[in-house]
Amino acid sequence: QTVVTQEPSFSVSPGGTVTLTCGLSSGSVSTSYYPSWYQQTPGQAPRTLIYSTNTRSSGVPDRFSGSILGNKAALTITGAQTDDESHYYCVLYMGSGISVFGGGTKLTVL
Amino acid sequence: EVQLLESGGGLVQPGGSLRVSCVASAFTFSTYGMSWVRQAPGKGLEWVSSISGSGGSTYYADSVKGRFTISRDNSKNTLYLQMNSLRAEDTAVYYCAKYKFSAAYYFDYWGQGTLVTVSS
């Protein structure tokens, strides 16, 4: 069974830069997995940030960017703000209509 | 503005059934895929099921295959999830999401969710 891996937690200082990653328990992530990223604050619905590796969803600030770094997908936040303190989830498309979420990363901004 | 409004959640006993619904507005419903994503209390997000715009293709996570059925009524702009043989581990907020299938494969709009609690 394929597991999508994310750092459980991360911390960044206001104004700093942080890169969250999304990997596979077996194998490398490529653009063929169409990585997407979602932000969720407690009690709220998820918000779509990035799709198809590096395309920002409508209205998403350009301080959020997506890429492939090595064998993982990555979400980079440049100039982190206190409002960015949230959970971040990646999703990989496995083919045949199947999508798999990572376990999520809790980002603290302090 | 795209809106997705879920309903139908509630308390159900283990082994019971429940159907949740999602009414969509402000986009051409029949031309887009749709999905259900759930979140157990204090846990992460889990993809549950997706359906094509026509309803002709459906997909399920292994955890719900054979117990849950996704469907849609394009004349009513409504997505459904019929849940049978419910278990305690199905307790979650169920989110409806608009889904882009081809050449992108991502959830682009989300509803606010409906809570399903499976307990005796």
General description of the model:
The complex is a heterodimer of chains A (110) and B (120). Chain A has 110 residues and is an all-beta fold. In chain A, the strands form two sheets. In chain A, strands 2, 4, 5, 6, 9, 10 and 11 form a seven-stranded mixed sheet that branches. Chain A has strands spanning 4-6, 9-12, 17-24, 36-40, 47-51, 55-56, 64-69, 72-78, 86-95, 98-101, 105-109. Chain A is built from no helices and eleven strands. The model of chain A has no long low-confidence stretch (mean pLDDT 96). With 120 residues, chain B is mainly β. In chain B, a hairpin with a 6-residue loop joins strand 5 and strand 6 (58-60). Chain B has no helices and eleven strands. Chain B is globular, with a radius of gyration of 13 Å. Chain B has strands at 3-7, 10-12, 18-25, 33-39, 45-51, 58-60, 68-73, 78-83, 92-100, 106-110, 114-118. In chain B, the strands form two sheets. In chain B, strands 2, 4, 5, 6, 9, 10 and 11 form a seven-stranded mixed sheet that branches.
Summarize the entry for a quick read.
The complex is a heterodimer of chains A (110) and B (120). Helix content of chain A is 0%, strand content 54%. Chain A is an all-beta fold and 110 residues long.
